[in-house]
Design a protein that fits this description.
The chain has 278 residues and is an alpha/beta fold. The protein contains five helices and 26 strands. Helix 1 packs across helix 3. The longest helix is centred in the N-terminal third of the chain and has 15 residues. The protein starts with a helix and ends with a helix.
Length: 278
Amino acid sequence: MSALEDDVRDLQRRYESGLSAEEAGADEHAILEDFLAALEAGEVRAAEKRDGEWQANEWVKQGILLNFGLRDIETHSYGGVDYHDVLPLRETDDLPDRGTRNTPDGTVVRRGAYVGSDAILMSPSFVNIGAHVGDGTLVDSCDTVGSAAQIGDGVKLGANTLIGGVLEPVEAAPVVVEDGVSLGAGCRVTSGFVVGADSVVGENTLLTPRIPVYDLVEEEVVYGHLPPERRAFTRFVESSVGEHDLFEGGAYKPAVVATDLETETLEATRREDALRDN
């Protein structure tokens, strides 16, 4: 256990025993600041892959929640507009030295978010506390990367994509998008779903543990994850509701179909490299 983890766990115990934001002083705030700095530096993460499975780091998620419970709302300014929050936005002076770009007029990165090298954050987009955005990843216009979400290296998040946040319960793994994934415009990934490495997901696809994934490669139905190296898209399958007096022709429910990653699809995603180099 690191000194920071020990401090956060001790602070959590005191918070559960009644420590309030009004009672938190300089020592408590110093722990919170050190914790946020460690998140931003990528020294700690809300989840990590162990023995092939993504697992939450509970103490890290507790540290994120402590930053809400032990801070007062303050007035800050961004782009000449006042906003009111317990956290300021993340300083971004370190990004240019690592080849990372964030475009003006609406690129918002909250404190406690990690952004890797050679990444691109297009405006308007929002990266929340505890999120981890890997090297060479593109966060496109109107994208949201939720609290504690883990985005790998070389990922393309298409425009208007939502990556959900999972802070509670602290033992629940957050949303994970592994290395090399390409999500089409308008995709939604929620509730701890894991998108396997090097997959290509068609636009407007909803990936959530409640929607089945029909994996035609292994010929099985899976929930909560998309296997690596798949091409996935939304289809509608027959629902158990069947026919009803209110409608004709039966009822259908959404599903995700996963097939082999076709060569031409992979080549199309590689064209994104041209955008990154210009």
